[in-house]
Amino acid sequence: MSATQHPAQHPAQQPAGTPAPAADGGLSSKGLSAGTVGLVGAVVIGLSCIAPAYTMTAALGPTVSEVGYQVPALVLVGFVPMLLVALGYRELNRAMPDSGTTFTWATRAFGPWVGWMAGWGLVAATVLVLSNLAGIAVDFLFLLLAQVTGNPGLADLAGNAVVNVVVCLAFMAAATAVAYRDMQTTQRLQYGLVGFQLLVLLLFAGVALYRAATGEPGSEPVSLEWFDPTAVPSTAALAAGLSLSIFIFWGWDVTLTMNEETKDPDRTPGRAATVTVVVILTVYLLLAVSLLSFAGTGETGTGLGNPDLQDNAFAALAGPVLGPLGALVSLAVLTSSASSLQSTFVSPARTLLAMGHYGALPTWFAKVHPRFFTPGNATVAAAAVASAFYAVMRVVSENVLWDTITALGMMICFYYGATAFACVWYFRRQWFDSARTAVLTLVCPLVGGVVLAVLFVTTLVDSTDPDYGSGSSVGGVGLVFVLGVGVIGLGAVLMVAQRLARPAFFRSETLRRSDSLTDLRPASTDREHA
Amino acid sequence: MHHEDDQGPPARARVAVGYTATEAGRGAVAAGARLARALGADLHLVLVVPDTARGAVVPPDPGYEAVLRTSAASWLEEAAALVPADVPASTRAVRAESAAEGLLEAAHEVGATHLVVGAGSERGLARFGVGTAASELLHSADLPVVVVPLTDDDGRGGGPAAPALSRVTVAVGTRPGADVLLEEGLALARAAGAPLRLVSLQVLDLPGRLDDDAVQDTADAHLRAVLDEARAAVPDALVEEALVVRGRDVTDAVGGLDWRPGEVVVVGSSRLAAPHRLFLGATAARLLRAVPVPVVVVPRTRPEGGPA
């Protein structure tokens, strides 16, 4: 507490535009809540962001429909590009901590146009996942009600479009209120929720394995071939499966990027990231193997290839596997979706806020709520778009959740890829400073970025096929393609509109292109929030 | 708390203001400035930024922290600009788990005599019709807390020549503890050169009872006695008025009183409070909602050796 007292200051004595030194000094003296997150805390945050129960129920069906029994192989392989990109992400976060993340970094490396589109990609991906999360939560809410009351008819209510959309919008409104007012779950409660989620998933996988091994009809013996990525039928299937498996690790990067906030910045983030990924891989592999073995990939009944359960695999399998205890799975997915909604809301809101701040969007987005200290306007905007998107998709698509997840994988590849390339380019003058910089700022992000770019393009091309994904199509073209191109095209239109309305950002007046070496010189202060 | 006295000349008294960049916050700054001027004190504007690492779901983000820091700095700059030029003011942003906690900590650090907060805009939602922060303070603070309603007409056109406080009303209770209340009211009135008004509230909450008249007479006599005692304790010249007001409830009773722009009302905290701490009683809470001027809530007892 060095700066408790400051000389009386009056605005007249202060040069205009200078932040009050008293306020700034006072806050930084206490630090950025430094050293408050321990190893367990960091792992819990990581697991909450990944939300394994939600992720697996949403992604398992679509992945099986692409690669069949090779899901475990894809889980293992899919982690690699995520790891490579996350390493680059960490370097950027160290060099340029900014609430705009991908948007700011890509602008700094490649200029305003690429930066704008990269930021748009992040916002679009998170908005897609918000709508999917709320949709999954609706399914499980009705399923839970049906399981608890013993009235299977209740679960079918989720299939009624009007009921579904209304409940989903109510969920979204509740999640928006939580994010808007920054109501945080306490640590103890969150530890409990994450622990519960893991225990239920282990129980689910364990019972499925046991029942498959004891001759459940329709079950399939576990085979080592399931772990072999080369056994995937085609490269197109491999690409589609991989872009889905990027989604299942989405959120893991936060454990790596928590640095000064941890109690032991030298060791905690690395350990937390390792522990988290070991836990996640174990859970995913167990779930994938056990459910594949229990249900097979058949296209009827509980088979994971059945189009009717693509949207939400656990909802279909919890009952057959666990019987009356299936309600536990519903509860685990619901709590998992709730924490994921909470953490996911933060990223589009903060990116929109940064875009507003630098003039890439109207300043309305840059407003910080004076009482809740959240990006209030940006949060409401993200929620409104996600709600509208869900409502429209529910009508347009036969399998809204399936298609949003596939489109989501594509958008993640887009903005993660852009982030990876931004890392490579931003650090270009420091690549060969040391072996460390060569690996972390050149090799890893470059390979990761190229993989994601290939996945993005392959998925985009393949998704033009009207039979792609759920088989929903618009005008003879696959819905996923229309979604991907539509979202990116809409971004381009909005970008041009903003360029015409407020050109300062696009003339690099608010955020300049630069590189890591230039920014190390003390004179460069341009990236500070003015 | 008094370690500051060790260094250099005795520090000037300070009035701390909990600021938020809202209508309620601006009202608090205006009322705080008036109080500071009356007491010859410095104003200390405090903005509490919530601790972002308190949750276990949203990862901490240094980039967003920077946004909050610059926002806090510019808000405090705006707040400082609201303070009249003749009142010396300092600003400070603190980080805390809750607004109340941060405000109390900051107020103690500068040895503030009063802590001024806006009542918040959530009338009807929060339990006492005051904001969450104000409500929490009113149940834990160990110094007088001034709650400024949104409806406060502070006579902002007054300028430095106008008296800082137009009148000090003391809501004299029916129970012991009034001496501290009177001291506070007297100190404010003396410092500001403002007249004092003593008010005793009588709420007839059992209408229609047979012995209504008897009850009322007894209560009346009791209140008169308390009021007379209070009146005797302060110099006559200062007291403008001493009256008993009646009503079906507090709002009804208070409804008959007139209020001047720039007036404050002093009330005591509940007997339920721990010594030297506030605990807003039911009557005081209702008063807070019914009164259109800032309310100074005073702890029941003074800390040992504290300011008189």
Descriptive overview:
The complex is a heterodimer of chains A (530) and B (308). By secondary structure, chain A is mostly helical. Chain A has 19 helices and 2 strands. Chain A has helices at 21-29, 39-50, 52-67, 71-95, 102-110, 112-149, 153-156, 161-180, 187-213, 235-249, 253-257, 268-295, 313-322, 326-357, 376-396, 400-426, 435-462, 479-501, 516-520; strands at residues 473-474, 477-478. In chain A, a hairpin with a 2-residue loop joins strand 1 (473-474) and strand 2 (477-478). The model of chain A is unreliable at 1-34 and 524-530 (pLDDT under 50). Chain B has a 10-stranded mixed β-sheet, with helices on both faces. The longest helix of chain B has 22 residues, at 212-233. Chains A and B meet through helix 1, helix 2, helix 9 and helix 14 of A and strand 2, helix 2 and strand 3 of B.
**How many strands in all of chain B?**
10
Low-confidence stretches of chain B: 1-8, 122-129, 155-161, 304-308
What is the end-to-end distance of chain B?
15 Å
State which percent range the strand residues of chain B make up. Answer: 15-25%
Instruction: Provide the low-confidence segments of chain A as ranges.
Output: 1-34, 524-530
Helix content of chain B: 25-40%
Outline type of chain B: globular
- What order do the strands of the largest sheet of chain A run in, or round the barrel if closed? 1-2
Q: Which chain pair shows the most residues in contact? A: A-B, 63 and 49 residues
| Distance linking N and C termini of chain A | 26 Å
Order of helices and strands of chain B: EHEHEHEHEEHEHEHEHE
Please state the overall shape of chain A, judged from the principal axes of the Cα atoms.
globular
CA gyration radius of chain B, whole angstroms: 20 Å
Largest sheet of chain B: 10 strands, mixed
Report the order of strands and helices of chain A: HHHHHHHHHHHHHHHHHEEHH
